[in-house]
User: Fold this.
Amino acid sequence: MVDRLFADPRLARLYDSLCAGRRDFDFYLPMVMSAGSVLDIGCGTGQLLHLARELGHAGRLCGLDPAAAMLEQARQRSDVEWILGDLSCAAWDREFDLVVMTGHAFQVFVEDEELRAALAAIRSTLTADGRFAFETRNPLVRDWERWTPDDVVEVTDDEGVVVRSWHEVEAPLDEGVVRFTQTFASPGWDRPRTSRSTLRFLDRAALTSLLTSAGLAVEEQFGDWSRSPLTDTSPEIITIARRSAPPAR
Assistant:
């Protein structure tokens, strides 16, 4: 997910290093390459769409993100549409064959109302045969219990300075919601940078229900990036949904 901290240009430049070796791109990239038009919601630094262009994607690629500092990194390529904003300002009508949300960005929609609004906006962007692909962490695995200050990631910034990052849960799962902090610290900084975030963990049944009510039908679901079947012990709920009949009024 893209944390609010990444509105800081210094941290935005660190994002790809922090996420090096992402396995989700191996899953999403073939889908992107086979789609004529693609919208990446919460695109961050645009790495997925950069890779698609480098591999020869000749169609429409569009990245949407609310963080200007992240899009500054994304705009190193000018052959992709980069839009500053979120789904509340989206007005596309059946323009994209594929919509993706990577990096667990789907989990930032905490309230039912905002999630339904997001799904309605996503449905409206899809062509008749369009697909929506995204992932959310499986709540049965309780991944947040491993988000502790002992689990530290270290990277080197563009000035050669080592930066350490870690998460710490402030409020464990309560009605499907986890509140936590993310902190960055470096010996060369005057102080650490910390932000508070909230994520929602939806189980398979609740997720399917919300998609269905939004006029999206689950086509496939997987439990990990190797496309293993979804089980109670799977770390992910990876979903590919398609536009279905209009939701009931």
Observations:
- Residues 140-200 form one domain.
- The chain has two domains: 4-138+201-243, 140-200.
- The first helix runs from residue 9 to 12.
